[in-house]
Amino acid sequence: MKIAYKTRFLLGGHMKLSVGLRIANSLSLTPQLQQAIRLLQLSSLELEQEIQLQLDSNPLLEKVEEQISVESLSTVDASQKDLTNELNADHLPDDLPVDTDWDDVYTHQPTSLGAAEFEEREDNRQSQQSLQEYMLEQINLLHFSRIDQLIAYCIIDSLDEKGFLDAEISEITASVQHLLSSMDYEEEIEEDEVLVVLKHIQRLDPIGVGSRNLAECLLIQLDSLPVNTPCRNDAVKLLQHYELLITNELPKLIKQTGLNQEQLRCAVDLLKTLKPYPGLEFESKESDYQIPDVVVMKKNDCWQVTLNPDVMPKLRLNSFYTNMIRRADQSEDNQYLRNQMLEAKNFIKSIDERHKTLLKVATCIVEHQKSFLEIGPEGMKPLVLRDIAEEVELHESTVSRVTTNKYMLTPRGLFELKYFFSSHVGTTSGGEASSTAIRAKIKKMIAEENARKPLSDNAIANLLKEEGIDVARRTVAKYRESLHIPSSSERKVLI
Asked: How far apart are the first and last CA of the chain?
């Protein structure tokens, strides 16, 4: 009763704060309650690991394995008999049917050689090479001296994910000097030596790697093009006025470079063919797979929420060991089995409670966000943890634990449960709008804008006001930046 009372308080109570503080100060969390709280915040992968750990350590706990049905067993048995009859046939066809290959008749069974072939193929499926690895392969083929090679290694180590040099020349010089000193070399390294090696690296593949800024990267790529490339020299002139180029100040560019509109257009088109960030093609493309905890589907015009059975392992007590427990026996072995059985029961109960709580919270979220499921992000309703906590009669902290690292699979994609929570923004009609919905509207407006006359933050704020959403210009700017959308001046197309 004591445990139930504390559980009700911590997981779903409605007591006043002062009362709660007094109880929290006077009572400590039981091990079972601590376990229940800890399991709530585990992701599906972490839960799987935790269950496996419990299975390995507790002999009283076992997983219910899926059993093959009687029908499927009988089918297998029948097919086995047919195969046996065929193999026992006293004759084989003299000739293979016309247009038949041996592989169509003979099913290859893996041998030791076949297994080795398979393993070799598996081993050949290597992950994508990183930029650093690719550059080191090239450097090791160059006829660098030992010191120049060391400089090159330090430069490669200083590349960021875009392929730019993320360090000052003085810093690289100091690093190389330190390494030489640690290896008892007495040579003094000058910055000019580092610059020479850097120029070699910048002309390796991909061209422009190791550049210190975008302008330098594009200039190196232009320099590598054939001399007779159309508009090559004009593009070089443009990059000499890089600041005007990125701010799209067309009249100033024409005045400073002496180019006419046609030459400017040709030069810009040439620059667009270059790679602004040579290192991005080596960016790791390995997918961060997430297993959905909850699946949402629409059936008969109703949204149904179910737990993913793949992350809901069925656990039970091991009948063999439970039958060994004797009620009146106080021996050490019997006591051990009793304790393990109690731990197994509590663990199963905690797992079950976790699933129930997760399903309850997910169902409530879906009820609130039906419009999102119907029309997308623009239909997202404002929602905070407190709203869900009050409806499902749980504490806000519990809802927070349940929605962290838990994923919901919907017809619109896979989302973390926390995605469905967003702040309230007042509207002119007296209602409320979700910040997520406003972001979606801003993104849509910018996607549909005239590229030559992009919408300013103030213009977007006015358009939103017309739709009944009253937000300040700085709020629009904040939402736009959170979407990684550049400002209107940066979005403007030159010609």
From this structure: 76
User: Does the pLDDT value for residue 12 go beyond 50?
Assistant: no
Query: Domain 424-491 carries which CATH code?
Result: 1.10.10.60
Give me the pLDDT at residue 23, please.
41
pLDDT tens profile 284-304: 544 456 789 999 998 888 999
Residue 316 neighbours by CB under 8 Å, 6+ apart: 61, 62, 64, 348
| CA dist., res. 226 & res. 230, Å (int) | 9
Nearest to 378 by CA among 432, 444, 322: 444
The DSSP line for 392-444 is HT--HHHHHHHHTT-EEEETTEEEEGGGG-B-EEEBTTS-EEEHHHHHHHHHH
- Taking the C-alpha atoms of residue 399 and residue 401, their distance in angstroms, rounded to an integer, is 5
> pTM to 2 decimals?
0.51
Counting DSSP H helices and E strands in the chain, the numbers are: 25, 8
Rg of the chain, C-alpha, whole Å? 34
Q: Could you give the dihedral angle defined by the CA atoms of residues 108, 112, 116 and 122, in that order, rounded to the nearest 10 degrees?
A: 60
pLDDT in tens, 347-402: 999 999 999 999 999 999 999 888 888 888 888 888 888 889 999 888 888 888 88
What pLDDT digit, counting tens, does each position of 87-134 carry? 444 444 444 444 444 444 444 444 433 433 333 333 333 456 788 888
Helices (H), 247-287: 250-257, 261-272
The rounded distance, in Å, linking the Cα atoms of 366 and 436 is 16
What are the domain boundaries of the chain? 131-281, 294-420, 424-491
> Do the bridges between strand 315-317 and strand 61-63 make them parallel or antiparallel, or are there none, so unpaired?
antiparallel
> What is the maximal distance between C-alpha atoms in the chain?
102
> Nearest to residue 51, comparing CAs of 355, 408, 415?
355
CA distances, 177 to each of 151, 172, 201, 274, 389 (Å): 9, 9, 20, 35, 60
Peptide bond into 206 cis (omega under 30): yes
C-alpha 51/C-alpha 17 separation (Å) is 35
